[in-house]
Amino acid sequence: MLAPNREGWLCRCSCKLVFPVSCSLVKLLEETRQWWFINSKLQAVASRVAEEMGVKLGEEVGYTIRFEDVTNTDKTVVKFLTDGVLLREMMDDPLLSKYSVIMVDEAHERSISTDILLGLLRKIQRRRPDLRLIISSATIEAKSMASFFRSSKRHQEAGATDLGPSKEPAILSVEGRGFNVEIHYVEEPVPDYVQAAVSTVLLIHDQEPAGDILVFLTGQDDIDAAVRLLTEEVQSHGKKSHGLIVLPLFSGLPRADQDLVFSPTPRGKRKVVISTNIAETSLTMEISDIENLVVAPISKASARQRAGRAGRVRPGKCYRLYTEEYFVKQMSSEGIPEIQRSKLVSCVIQLKALGIDNILGFKWPASPSSEAMIRALEVLYSLGVLDDDAKLTSPVGFQVAEIPLDPMISKMILASDQLGCAEEILTIAAALSIQSIWVSGRGMQKELDEAKLRFAAAEGDHVTFLNVYKGFLQSGKSSDWCRRNFVNAHAMKKVIEIRAQLKRIAQRLGIVLKSCESDMTVLRKAVTAGFFANACRLEAYGHNGMYKTVRGSQEVYIHPSSVLFRVNPKWVVYHSLVSTDRQYMQNVITIEPSWLPEAAPHFYQQRQLGPSIH
DNA sequence: GAGCACTGC
User: Fold this and answer.
1) Where's the Helicase C-terminal domain (predicted)?
2) Which residues contact A177 (CB under 8 A, 6 or more apart)?
3) Among all strands, which nt has the closest C1' to A346 (CA)?
4) Residues A25-42: b if buried by 16+ CB within 10 A, e if exposed
5) Residues 6+ apart with CB under 8 A from A254
6) CA–CA gap between residue A390 and residue A356 (Å, rounded)
7) What are the C-alpha distances in Å from A273 to residues A215, A246, A258, A546?
8) Which regions of chain A carry the CATH code 3.40.50.300?
9) How far is the CA of A244 from the C1' of B7 (A)?
10) What DSSP letter does each residue of A316-328 carry, written as one string?
């Protein structure tokens, strides 16, 4: 399977799973010194490979993820790790000199880290002719992947002739698995898609042979409505709905209810799962046959992904509640490939730390737009991470690159050292790094809001996090305390983990872990030092809580989940924006406008802040 | 008065 064909190292195999490929490779290359897999489900794969090789996990075969290093420096020859971990390792060892073979699995999934990694590996292979690269990718991507690495070879032949021949990487293309899925479209656009979904379910149930149904709707509201309509139909003992089991599925649903979806369908029954796009990727039902309703607008890629949920065990059908013309002409092919600015900012700083100075000339498998790149460089410049020559500043730039967080958070941590509030800021940094510390859930907003009020701080959400953290520690990290206070226990566990990691890094950087006790002003200043670019001012009277960003005059509002919602202090900075019908600021803290030119003299000149500074 | 879901250091 690995032998080079005449066209080079482009091989094809039609394996049912990626795993057997990896396993055969292990057998084939057992004699090599050390080599690498990069895969998201790597713990599971690592333990299977260890089992296959008859060795103990953590010895000859090991893995490394963010909070776990299950390897043994003396013994490990096969190591599984995430792309992020490998990028971190490259900061100490840019040529990855310890390793002889690197396999990048699922390269087509193409997270931005994988893209950087591929770009760096392409560079490394010019300096490391002995390094074997194996890239596994979906078939459609294999050719472009091969040419990405081939163009590097041409470059090498034209330029550096003294480096000796280097092998092109083996590109494994893994065929899509599964059975045929028959696609149906509606002939005319439907006026009410929830109603249309319900009718289609009943029609399928009436006319199609056994097999479960999976329906994608946009949100919890529509799911509730559809479940209600179908359940009413079932309860009225209508002939059309006899034997139908109706189950909702969304992330906020309690675990026990989610498990129902995965339980086997009783004989003679048909399960219908009404889901958000949680089921698009994470759901693989171990049941006979899944039929699939999709509601627009999503991307073509997403639509194919959804259709692929059917036909995994035997042929399936997919009913799209939009017209074929709409699919062909209106739907975008790839969704939103736009790289988030903050992500790109992190990447740029990592490349800089790896010594790649010419960022704009870096060869990516798919380049981000130069506008996005320039915006990222601007952010880093304003943070004082890059200097006028776009080089990492010392020490701030190098320190920010050391911290595995969004550079704005890293800058906030560094500022907290001078301001004497690192203890508090590390907690805030950890809390900002996870989705939410509160339990989500409908039908208990009132209790949740009341619970939040018990911790709410006048300064805003960041200080509120501190209050929750304090309470959690005082309770002895009790999960019962979490339940009573509508705090997500699992999220708090993560906060503790991340905080411990940040503490280790902070100590390595020589940051003094001092507490500011009750002085919230220094704490707010530290937040401002990182997030000054997100400063907003409340519009004067009668604008119903409308703020404008200081820099862009963009209209924004405080998100209803914030403790400052309806409080509307005059000046705030936010952590992130979420855009729905409006632009909402999430995690908001009050500031004094005079701190802005202090924190970022290049970014804010005094006069920009206008006459309302007092 | 908002709410699709991951992944990663």
Assistant:
1) 197-355
2) A16, A17, A312
3) B9
4) bbeebeeeeebbbbbeeb
5) none
6) 11
7) 6, 6, 10, 40
8) 10-174, 181-330
9) 35
10) EEEEESS-HHIII
A442 touches strand B (CB under 7 A): yes
- What is residue A27's three-state secondary structure? helix
- What pLDDT band is residue A342 in, cutting at 50, 70 and 90? low
Do the Cβ atoms of A166 and A129 come closer than 8 Å? yes
Distance A302 CA to B4 C1' (A): 13
Mean pLDDT of A556-569: 93
What CATH number does domain A181-330 carry, 2.40.37.10, 3.40.120.10, 3.40.50.300, 2.170.190.11?
3.40.50.300
Residue A292 pLDDT > 50, yes or no?
Answer: no
Nearest nt to the A249 alpha carbon by C1': B4
The pLDDT confidence band at residue A52, using thresholds 50, 70 and 90, is confident
Instruction: Tell me the residue length of chain A.
Output: 614
CATH of region A10-174, choose from 3.40.720.10, 3.40.50.300, 3.10.20.600, 3.20.20.450: 3.40.50.300
Average pLDDT, chain A: 79
- For residue A565, say whether its CB is under 7 Å from any atom of strand B: yes
